[in-house]
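Allow me, if you will, to draw on your knowledge of protein folds for a short while. I have a record of one protein: its chain in single-letter code and its fold written as discrete structure tokens. I should value your view on which stretches of the chain appear to form regular backbone elements. Thank you for your consideration; the sequence and its tokens are set out here:
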Amino acid sequence: MDLLLDTHVFLWWCDNSPKLGKLANEAIANPRNVVYVSVASAWEIAIKETLGRLKTPEPVEDAVTENEFSPLSISFQHARLAGSLPNHHRDPFDRMLVAQAQADGLVLVTRDERIRPYTVKVLWI
């Protein structure tokens, strides 16, 4: 299974947070699954750090490498799809993650209920 971590899921994984839950922990830790972290999440984290709303112990790219996750770049197809999604969710970062999951056939790992109206495979935590 190819997974795309929502930003909060990535942060919880890096922090060993109990918020993540058993099912998500097992899926992310499963070596048969490819786990992606979008550069949109890195961008979102950088903005929140600059605003003082978040503090991470290391750069996102270091955490991605250390956890053997795969970085997912934003393509023109992703951008076009994100821009054309119905306005169920106003957060541009989450809309990008939905678009990337749809375009690349990934399972989005999230707790964000505002994702439900979209046609996207989700592993709910």
